[in-house]
Amino acid sequence: VSTQSTGQIVVHMNFDFKSIGIVVGSVVVGVVGVCVNDYIAARKELARLSSSPTAAGRVNPGLRALSKPMHVFWYTIRYTVIAPVLLVARLFGYTQVDLIAMASQPMMKKKTAEWSEEMDKIVAKIDDPAMRKTVWIATIAKAGTNMMMAMTSMILYRGDVKTLYGIGDDDIATLHCHDRIPWPDEVHPGYAVSIHDNSPMTRMPFDYKIVKTHFSYFDTPALHDRRVISVTRDPKAVIASMYAFFRAVSMGPAVPPIESIINSVVRGSYPFGDWAFRAAKDWENRNNDDHMFMFYEDVVKDRPTAIRQVAEFLHVDLSDAEVDKINEYNGVEWMKKHDRQVYWAGTFTPLAADGRMIRAGKADGGKKTLTVEQRRYVDQTIMKRLEEIGSDFPYKEKYASW
User: Fold this and answer.
1) Tens digit of pLDDT for each residue in 335-366?
2) Label partner for 143 (CA 20 to 30 A): which of 20, 60, 280, 360?
3) How far is C-alpha 271 from the chain's CA centre?
4) Sheet architecture: strand order including 227-232
């Protein structure tokens, strides 16, 4: 900087390309170092889980390595591209929620079609010996699926979690729940054992095979000796849990606003279809001999009674001591402690957070996540939808409270 006799200030700029190159090179080396470090950590974790046949479907070293750079990239795109687009959209009367709905609905229809196609393949193999004596855990998404899978498995194993999950003296589990339990409507390759796997790993005591699905009782294939346990949950709590789930396993900071998830649930455009239609169908078939209908809230309120009911449904006689043991292992505290080993969902994208599955296990109706207005909107919209369907599902008595 120099000052001329005229009083003008002149700035002389001298680019030192060598120094700039050193700075850029240092940044690149630092980024590569972070990626390599995260990749190595993920490989080590995968090695520790070598006894789990499905570990590779959850621990993806490549995605883990890209996590930090992708977070930087996301925030850059968010403020340089997405923000201006949203401002322009507002000029035409569209909100972020509107744009997400327009973009996501075709994708959800495609996914649902893929899942339905997978179910059709299962029906086509209805005589497969691997499908005999099947217990379907048919829950609405985010309605205590892991809780019910664990409860049912523990009942069949009479509370012997060491054998069920391969737990050693160090209290570390070596088997994930999906090493034993197939999930046919999951489209991520290798995430769960195949439904047509008839190995001892998938065959539980009493010769039962447990299968997880988010389809309803009505959609579950009528296979040999079928038993279906369906669970429904307050849709407001489903929304709150889904919001946390998307952040944890896939979207991280890119998770859509809660209003988008509310609309997808009440309008029936979220995965696995219409909440109201699904609940109505399960309720309608609640008295069928091969179907056990349960409210998530009732299970959480009195787990020992739920354990006895499920055991009776599966024709398993449990002692009081076995019920107490299963109740302890099916509690949130034990499941949280072993989340990473037994229930962890993994990371589906580099933006994912921690991939954990077990949260609070409470029946609070989404009060901590949704506003009073949002909760009222959900209740009123779904009650209207149930009325249109002609269902006598007791929504008002069970869920409508603000």
Assistant:
1) 888 887 788 877 777 777 677 777 776 677 67
2) 60
3) 11
4) 209-213, 134-139, 227-232, 291-295
